[in-house]
Amino acid sequence: MTSYMAREVSEIPQVSRRFLMESRGALRAAAAAMRAIDPGLIVTVARGSSDHAATYLKYAVELLAGVPVASVGPSVASVYGRPLRLGGAACVGISQSGRSPDIVEMIRAAGTGGALSVAITNFADSPMAQVSAHCLPLQAGVEQSVAATKTFVTSVVAGLALVAEWQQNEPLLAAIETIPQAFEAALALDWSPLAARMARAQQGYVLGRGPAFAIANECALKLKETCGLHAEAYSAAEVLHGPSAIVQAHFPVLALAVEDAAHAGVVQTAERLAAQGADVFVTGAAAQGCVTLPSVGGLHPLVAPLVLAVGFYGFVEALARRRGFDPDTPPHLRKVTETV
Fold first, then answer.
1. Distance CA 75, CA 252 (A)
2. Torsion over CA of 172, 259, 90 and 218, rounded to 10 degrees?
3. Of the residues 49, 109, 117, 130, which has the maximum number of CB atoms within 10 A of its CB?
4. Residues 6 or more apart from 9 whose CB is under 8 A from it?
5. Could you give the angle at the alpha carbon of 185 between the alpha carbons of 182 and 188, nearest 5°?
6. Residue 334's pLDDT band (boundaries 50, 70, 90)?
7. Do the beta carbons of residue 273 and residue 236 sit within 8 Å?
8. How many C-alpha atoms does 292 have within 13 Å on its Cβ side?
9. Beta strands at 279-283 and 252-255: parallel, antiparallel or unpaired
């Protein structure tokens, strides 16, 4: 029987196409508003997979626009009731449901504090959308698996499209138009060597740099929630500042290398950990002592890490079943988590 998660992963190409077609007007309106205020700061509000989408957005904004992006803890508003001075800033909230009270309250407080607020959510009539100046509806349809997949990917597409429209960056705009085809190619990637190793694993690291670090965080979360595996995500630089000390013989490591300025550094870290005895798997790159996993080549560097996520989702859904888990219903979790 096919899991909901597998079906939803297979829908990612068509969902991304639908978002780019049906939310184009909302994207352009929000981007025009951002150009009008010319923000010197952007803050993000999110939790879980949505926070990984916010991290991806952070790198895209800082690399393309040179504007710093900071994640704001929702409890600043919802628990501590502390107003923030955000005049001239933009605030982007990301939430699949748009219903968590702490996220909604932080978005509301950001608007009161002077920020231009933009909601990225699957529900255009959600409380978060209603308290925001602009909403980018994901148009992803119902997502039944607890593990967010198509909504996560489309949230990142929405963030990338918003930045590309705001900055009027033609290379990224063009890359986004072809992203559904890249997702289709990613669904066909064969990561069976990694599956054979992770089938018996109890722990592991996922590494990346820049936008790929956001995807490393998402991969580690999915390994926890769908496979019962204690995985941790690190920057390929940060892992050398302490965490590499526990990497010994046959410790599993997934290194997400993409064709960007950080590529050589990620490969260098992968080779160093392999020399310590780790079982290291690297995407799309030849690295000494490591196993190379296939990836989709020739992509814009701000798009490539997200395409890797789609390939990973197909891999992790199958891995969960191989390890005896139901990927649709992780223990102790619900689809919508409402925190204060």
1. 35
2. 120
3. 117
4. 149, 150, 187, 310, 313, 314, 317
5. 150
6. low
7. no
8. 10
9. parallel
